[in-house]
Design goal:
single chain; about 110 residues; mainly beta; four-stranded antiparallel β-sheet
């Protein structure tokens, strides 16, 4: 990730519009902001997964992901599974290891990609 120059910004996530993204089961609610321009633009999100959420795809995008609340299970295509609880994070590069998110209890995440 290359972060081109952009001004210092604070975000009150409660004021950022929430968009719904349906999973194979459950929903993800994203609050999204973008910084920078062009191919070096970064996306910063606060994401809430409902209980029972399962992503409808295998994601190949790189992320830095931090779990704020709940529990998130991430499965890699090779079958390995990792569980994040509050205070834990994962990092993965673009096209490095496809992953799929799932939660039984719901989760709130802070994601940069």
């Amino acid at each position: 990730m290359k972060m081109d120059a952009f001004p210092f910004v604070t975000i009150d996530w409660n004021t950022v519009e929430r968009t719904e993204h349906k999973g194979a089961t459950g929903c993800a609610y994203w609050r999204t902001r973008f910084f920078g321009k062009g191919e070096n633009r970064i996306r910063v999100r606060m994401v809430e997964y409902t209980p029972g959420y399962l992503a409808d795809h295998w994601c190949e995008k790189g992320h830095i992901l931090f779990c704020l609340q709940g529990e998130l299970k991430t499965t890699l295509q090779d079958g390995r599974t990792f569980v994040l609880t509050p205070g834990m994070s994962y990092q993965v590069g673009d096209n490095a290891e496809a992953h799929q998110s799932q939660t039984d209890t719901g989760a709130t995440l802070f994601i940069v990609d």
